[in-house]
User: What shape does this take?
Amino acid sequence: MGFRCLKPLLSFLVIIIFFISLVVKKGFTISGPCSQCHTMHNSQNGQPVAENGTSAQPFKALTIGDCVFCHTGTNTGTNNIPYVMSNTEPVYNFGGARNTLAGGNFYWVQSDDSKGHNVVGITGEDGALGLVPPGYDPTNYPEFGKYRPSTWTQQLTCAGNFGCHGKFDANNPELNDPFAAISGAHHKNINRNGTEPADEVWDSYRFLWGIKGTEDPDYELHPDTQHHNGYYASTSPGDPASINYLCGECHGKFHSDTYNGTYASPWLRHPTDFDMNQVKTKEYGGYPNPTLFSGKLGVSAVGDYFADVPVGNTQGAVLSKVLQNPGDAIVLCLSCHRAHGSPYPDILRWDYSTCKASDPSPQCGCLACHTQK
Ligand code: HEC
Ligand code: HEC
Ligand code: HEC
Ligand code: HEC
Ligand code: HEC
Assistant: This one.
């Protein structure tokens, strides 16, 4: 073959390599070229750029893929897309090394329904729980005019009426679509702080509409006492900006005071929205139990914030020391659970089967608060 024949072949290869490099390129950021994330006609050289499942249908907002497509990968510390799903088993050690982010990872729910939220595009409907969130109460929080669907006719999605992120309004079926629910948020996203307004999706904590708090810049990839999310919490379960309220939107009976007892010991359900300063003279004053957890994620003394058994505060601030002032150590759903997925049943942060009263284990997170059990 002469050079004349090779030339078109070479240019063809150069073009192919160029497009491959666009796809695998690291350092993806919202400030990058539009073409890293968008395709105008979903056609390039007559071939589709994006594939919706097995068909070549385009995606909403002209993106090259859906939420799960873009948010799948392995967190290295240099990727600018936060990865919440991985195709290979992530590193996850309670109190130790990990490459998962604050919400955990959806990897494990693919093979075990109990190890994560069963989100569309990741896995099918939860075999044991079905579509309806455990503890769902459609009459919860009507005073705020924000409703979840009264009947759960769809599987959980990343965003929208049946999802956790983005806008929802049970009377507006357009918001069943995750892209409609989150529209515009990516380009306007801010690194939000504390109790600043959270009226829109883009200025809310992690696009969780209406929720306040402070966002850790690396999504808790490498947390310690000073580097972590600042969870906004309240001692009123009805405060619609708290991270507990978010969970309560769908799991109301595990959250609202009507179902949890008189808001004091002995409890009916495990308390949340409860300030541990109120029981500081009991075992809770010893949080996070340095006898067991010293050396883990920077913990060395009583009152140090332990990022793997987090507590919230009424400022939504990043505190390295807690139990210093009223309202700075509030029990969260997230004190025990991850939001996306974990290697353990009930999406717990640690392996609950290691929790034995007779034999305190540094693998049992309950003991960070129940320091004398
Ligand atoms: C790193 C990925 C990324 C890059 C780069 C990017 N976008 Fe986007 N864009 C998105 C995502 C994701 C959405 C859909 C979700 C949303 O609306 O938040 C979106 C939505 C949009 C929308 C509809 C919503 C809105 O904000 O108005 C427009 C218009 C848009 N992009 C234009 C652009 C243009 C023009 C460029 C280049 C200058 C660009 N984008 C670059 C990720 C990106
Ligand atoms: C938009 C509704 C919605 C929100 C918000 C929500 N969940 Fe869920 N959750 C569900 C649904 C639906 C199920 C049952 C199906 C499944 O497992 O995905 C579920 C299941 C669970 C389970 C049981 C998992 C299993 O399979 O055994 C836990 C634990 C859980 N959620 C915790 C939380 C926590 C903690 C929050 C707040 C960070 C939260 N959820 C927010 C809808 C929601
Ligand atoms: C084209 C790729 C792309 C698609 C599609 C996409 N995202 Fe993102 N997403 C990104 C990038 C890039 C960032 C980081 C943005 C930043 O740093 O400001 C991000 C950030 C986020 C964050 C973190 C926001 C914060 O406040 O820190 C959330 C939550 C999120 N995306 C949810 C979604 C949901 C839900 C969908 C589907 C409706 C979606 N994304 C679709 C690329 C994408
Ligand atoms: C973030 C701190 C924290 C974590 C983690 C935690 N708890 Fe608690 N727990 C509390 C507080 C605070 C109370 C309320 C104590 C009171 O009112 O005297 C409580 C109450 C209880 C009660 C009821 C006690 C009563 O007097 O009615 C039980 C049982 C319990 N916890 C078990 C557990 C188990 C099991 C785990 C692990 C799965 C766990 N807790 C994890 C803080 C925590
Ligand atoms: C003290 C730790 C702890 C706290 C705080 C906590 N949970 Fe749980 N959660 C558990 C454990 C342990 C289980 C396993 C079932 C059980 O023991 O009742 C569980 C189970 C669940 C389930 C699954 C129920 C089912 O039927 O399979 C859901 C949903 C759930 N929790 C949501 C929440 C929500 C929402 C909050 C906050 C309002 C919350 N949890 C606070 C420890 C906790």
In short: The first strand starts at residue 157 and ends at 159. The mean pLDDT is 89.
